[in-house]
Amino acid sequence: MTSESSSGNKRRERLLAQLADGNFHSGEVLAKRMRVSRSAVWKVISSLRELGIEVQAVQKQGYRLAKSVDLLSTAEIEKQLATGARPLMERVEVLLQVDSTNHYLSSSTPPEPGRAILCVAETQTAGRGRRGRSWVAPFGSGICMSLAWTFAESPPTFSALSLAVGVAIARVLRAHGAQDVKLKWPNDIVWQGRKLGGILIEMRGESVGPSQVVIGLGLNTRMPSQVRLELAKQQATLIADIYEILREHTPTRSALVAAITTELLATLQTFANKGFEPFVDAWHELDSLANAPVRVLSANAVVEGVARGVASDGALLVDVAGRQQRFVSGDVSLRAAKG
What we know:
Elements: H1 3-19, H2 27-34, H3 38-50, E1 55-58, E2 62-65, H4 74-80, E3 89-98, H5 101-106, E4 116-124, E5 142-151, H6 161-175, E6 181-184, E7 188-191, E8 194-205, E9 211-220, H7 225-235, H8 242-246, H9 253-274, H10 280-286, E10 293-298, E11 302-310, E12 316-320, E13 323-327, E14 332-336
Parallel strand pairs: 3-4
Antiparallel strand pairs: 1-2, 4-5, 5-9, 6-7, 7-8, 8-9, 10-11, 10-14, 11-12, 12-13
Helix pairs in contact: 1-3, 2-3, 4-9, 6-9, 6-10
């Protein structure tokens, strides 16, 4: 990053901090607070708009965001990490914009074994979900985070890591009061049948020796109604968000990121030694499609049966015409069968 782009990012972040309350602020006051000219303020506002951030301008009133925003904070995330988690963090990065937090960390030098790097972004231009789908997260509406971790040795049942990660995230959300949160194989977080978030894990390494993973999480915290409608039309998926569930008890996004990171670090340490086995029972309790009729869609076929949980390696088990079949993550998509 050049010094010029770094300076530009800092100005954008400073201006967003002034506007985060959603109230009007005059250009003159903003210029004084930021110690820049009014024309410089206008240039920063223009650059925010280019990022897709809606800044309203009204004559004689000033500038404001379309709504108040709970901004992410590196200092607040680091402060709220559990004591045992802090020594494991190599660094925490909060970015205003990135193509994808997963791609950002996958393109960076991986952390040392037993250490982690966290990247969180306010906006993503190319956020990804499973099977190449895009992940939509308008500014300030969700959590887009990735955690890079290096295993000293490839853990047992490595392929089931996304299921263990799902358990970790569900535990955090339930601890904050979202008791109806469940998991949908292989990597969806759901609430009352609607999608709340998704997990995307990228792995690299050999069967013997160090293995690097980047764990990506997209979580809806407060999605605009218009975006909900657009997603329903484009993907035929109804969504939920944290604010809808917790209302006035909704934690700040930084607090939620810290809690999730703390739980993920504990999960990764357990998984490194014991694999998926310590998480199997918890996953089955959280399984949103347990013993439900399902339709499994693969590249070449559609199979209908009854979901029977997962195997020790994370494979989906489905009873099909009296026989149990296995389906592995990445090869299929899962939908509840119509009654």
